[in-house]
Amino acid sequence: MDDKKIAVDKKIAVLIDADNTSSNFAEALFQEIAQYGIASVRRIYGDWTRNPQGWQDKLLDFALTPIQQFSYTKNKDATDMQLIIDAMDLLYSGTFDAFCLVSSDSDFTPLAARLRQSGMTVYGFGKQTTPKSLTKSCDKFIYFENIVENFEFIENKYETNTYDSQYSNIRRSPFGTWKYNNYNNNYNNYNNYNSNHNTNKPYYQQKKYIPNEVRGYVYTAITHCSDYTGWANVGFIGHYIKNIAPDFDFRTYGFLSLSDMLKSFNSLQFKMDEKLRMFCRRIHFREVADLLQQEIFPEYQDDNGQVSIKEIENLVKSKWNWEEYGFNSFIDLLNRITNINIIDDKIEIKHNSYSSSYSQSYPLTEAKLDDNTRNIIYSSIQENIDETGWAFVAEVGQTIKHKLPDFNSKNYGFFKISELLKTFNELQFKSIGLNLYCRPIPIKELEELFINQIFPKYQDCDNVVDIDYIEDIIKNKWNWEDYGFSSFKELLEKLDIIEFFDDNLIQLKSQSTNEQDTLQDNSLQNDFYN
């Protein structure tokens, strides 16, 4: 059964808080609900002696069942209580697959959470002023601003709960244009609205700034949805984002589809497969910027601080092949790097951008991290280890930020997370192109081997061990070459418990008399059993 069939068959109970919802949103509301299933029950709650938000004229048009609820006390909303009671009755009937709660009132947060707890899909509808507590409690929350044309013009007509008949002749055509039965005040009001906003597009199609929080959702979704080649299915990306942000909607930022929104991101590359499914992956421009800043410019810049494009083209391509990311030429790539100025056939680094901040020197010393932060960093590495045992450092950084939103490597004296990680004694690194990977070195495992087996068995009366004698023994149990160590001595220098007695002899650091006696006892036991 395909998704469309599932959506058509889904029975939905629609419950509208008339006191908090304008009747002029009705048509757009039910057009949106139709995408998710059949609105089998349509109830609207309010004090109908006052015609809340002008809903009386809409009841027959949209087959709404009005539920009368008098206000027993001033400033107390009895409507909410009646809606909640009815929702629970409908839940226990076992008839419905989903609920639509139409309100911007945070009082319905416990109701949405309770319905989801019972296995119901909950769709919320409200304005962008809706508190996060309610939007996060729904499976999906849709803002009226994203589905209603000329939202502000309509919204302003019902600043009070009194119905204003001068707007009753406005109707929306099936093609999304507005028609009027007369062209006097309404026409002028509509034109004034558009002229004030300086746009001919509906509110929800006006391009808006995408907050960093939302960009973070997108990049995190790409990381978690990508395969080993780095490509992520755009459909999976949308599903992942909605799981962590139920109120996410590309229309909020003026886009007609998620793919349109993603295409506005400067750092993404796209492709289609044979089934016309869209995929995207990140283009790591920062890696190219690092390459130019740290290697190319220091060696190739002239007296004016510029570098010849032709001179460095092949050098950059050997380390970061732009053709793999869909760029036709080196110039196309340079045009996408924000901290680069192109001047004729040369480039220079903008001094007011990333390069100037990067030029600060940070000491490559041991980072002063508390135990909790250090443990989170290690767990983030473990979560991103692939089938080869390596973790992509960029993804490790994103996981750390997800767990510790306030984390910033600069707070510890390092410009990048990779610099901070390189101070960890227990990590090994490798580069593939400009991508940096790391993996934990099981140092503790090796230290336990020395403490429990090597020193008890092979130390002499001076509590020292000859490294030439144990080298092959260690290599059979723990091959240091697998972890990038060029020699046994280089490995030993990594162990905090070891110190060199001379060039070929080692001993355990700060051995107390009791520790030495224990090791000697263990040594005697090993000799006895051997």
Number of strands: 20
Please list the strands of the largest sheet in the order they lie side by side: 3-2-1-4-5-6
Portion in strands: 15-25%
Which structural class should the secondary elements be placed in? alpha/beta
Provide the residue-averaged pLDDT.
Answer: 77
Describe the structure.
- This protein is of the alpha/beta class.
- Helix content is 40%, strand content 16%.
- It has 21 helices and 20 strands.
- The strands form six sheets. Strands 3-2-1-4-5-6 form a six-stranded parallel sheet, with helices on both faces. A three-stranded antiparallel sheet has the order 9-11-10.
Q: What topology does this entry show?
A:
Blueprint: H1 3-9, E1 11-17, H2 26-33, E2 38-46, E3 65-68, H3 78-93, E4 98-102, H4 109-117, E5 121-126, H5 132-137, E6 140-143, H6 151-155, E7 170-172, E8 178-180, H7 185-197, H8 212-225, E9 232-233, H9 234-244, H10 258-263, E10 268-272, E11 278-282, H11 285-300, E12 307-308, H12 309-319, H13 330-335, E13 340-343, E14 346-349, H14 354-358, H15 371-383, E15 391-392, H16 393-403, H17 417-421, E16 427-432, E17 435-440, H18 443-458, E18 465-466, H19 467-477, H20 488-492, E19 498-500, E20 505-508, H21 513-529
Parallel strand pairs: 1-2, 1-4, 2-3, 4-5, 5-6
Antiparallel strand pairs: 7-8, 9-11, 10-11, 12-14, 13-14, 15-17, 16-17, 18-20, 19-20
